[in-house]
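2024-03-11 09:14:02 INFO worker-7 job=invfold-0412 stage=load source=structure_tokens
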């Protein structure tokens, strides 16, 4: 089976984890700090805060910005549900915005402008598939309306421009991401003071951590804010340090594989849309395609699985989930809905070779033209 995603793990990762176990210190400590600094350097940022997940990072950003009841935040529905959940966590209201098109499944500036009200305080840009929206356009949009721009950069690790759109960005290191710590995430921020608020809030609002008290023989601590248990541990940080060394090479491989997919699909299945036909910065996290209208997608999924090719969907739109339908019953996003009904994600990860892309594209073409 050719899987949609596979982590790249080997002897270096094993050795790094064993070193942490042998050290006797496995909770948040020096490795976490080293990982934060290395991740920040890779993204040309001053610093980063490592957390337990990208979801935790987004929540901490919302919390650190002081968003709450009465505030509205523009969010895409073409994303993982965490993007909107984090808005609800702080009591604010997510306002769903349509995508541009099947070719550019990123938040639409035009629809975002329509959805703005005097209660709109922020916008969360989700870098779908690892592709970045137009930074200058979104900065101008936000500046004109006094909005804070937050990036859901779960798909964009390794892109230097990710984290430069607005006040903060949250990254994911889940097992299917371009680099992994199994579970984990990080926040980069450009807003003075926000990083420190997030750093303190990730550990219950404590003024000092266990490792700091151990290293400095300090006895006590204070709690000066509402906090959460969103820490990352030394084992995951050690994994991350090794993974970071390979991230740029892996992203380069993903780009090459994506270009192969584009070339082969244009020849073998020209009716299939491969989003982002015009070049833009990307970490090439996933390989989405849009099937021709009236295609029985489930039949395609079943036939590809029979041929040894796993597929998935990115994403069922958030506003269609039962919980969100109950809370926001009148949301209509026609472009998002059409994309979601026809999208199919093909295998893409650094373990694939040209022969695998050839196999997948031939199998897809055979299914569509039967």
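2024-03-11 09:14:09 INFO worker-7 stage=emit residues=370
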């Amino acid at each position: 089976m050719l899987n949609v995603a596979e982590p790249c793990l080997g002897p270096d990762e094993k050795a790094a984890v064993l070193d942490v176990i042998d050290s006797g210190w496995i909770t948040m400590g020096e490795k976490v700090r080293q990982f934060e600094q290395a991740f920040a350097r890779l993204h040309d940022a001053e610093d980063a805060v490592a957390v337990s997940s990208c979801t935790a990072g987004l929540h901490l950003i919302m919390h650190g910005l002081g968003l709450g009841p009465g505030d509205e935040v523009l969010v895409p529905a073409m994303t993982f549900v965490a993007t909107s959940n984090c808005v609800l966590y702080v009591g604010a209201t997510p306002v769903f915005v349509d995508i541009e098109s099947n070719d550019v499944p990123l938040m639409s500036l035009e629809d975002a402008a329509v959805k703005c009200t005097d209660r709109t305080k922020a916008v969360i840009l989700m870098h779908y598939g690892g592709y970045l929206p137009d930074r200058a356009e979104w900065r101008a949009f936000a500046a004109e309306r006094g909005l804070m721009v937050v990036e859901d950069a779960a798909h964009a690790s390794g892109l230097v421009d990710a984290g430069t759109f607005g006040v903060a960005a949250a990254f994911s290191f889940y097992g299917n991401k371009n680099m992994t710590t199994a579970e984990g995430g990080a926040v980069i921020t450009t807003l003075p003071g926000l990083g420190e608020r997030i750093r303190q809030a990730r550990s219950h609002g404590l003024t000092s951590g266990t490792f700091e008290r151990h290293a400095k023989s300090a006895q006590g601590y204070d709690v000066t804010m509402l906090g959460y248990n969103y820490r990352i541990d030394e084992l995951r940080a050690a994994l991350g340090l090794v993974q970071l060394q390979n991230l740029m090479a892996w992203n380069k491989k993903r780009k090459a594989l994506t270009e192969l997919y584009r070339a082969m699909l244009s020849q073998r299945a020209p009716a299939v849309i491969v989003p982002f036909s015009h070049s833009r910065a990307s970490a090439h996290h996933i390989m989405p395609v849009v099937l021709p209208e009236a295609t029985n997608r489930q039949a395609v999924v079943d036939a590809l699985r029979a041929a040894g090719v796993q597929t998935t969907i990115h994403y069922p739109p958030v506003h269609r989930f039962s919980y969100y339908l109950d809370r926001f019953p009148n949301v209509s996003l026609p472009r998002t809905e059409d994309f979601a009904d026809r999208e199919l994600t093909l295998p893409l990860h650094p373990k694939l070779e040209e022969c695998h892309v050839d196999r997948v594209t031939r199998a897809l073409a055979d299914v569509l033209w039967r």
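2024-03-11 09:14:09 INFO worker-7 stage=report msg="Residues 169 and 179 are 17 Å apart (CA to CA)."
2024-03-11 09:14:10 INFO worker-7 job finished
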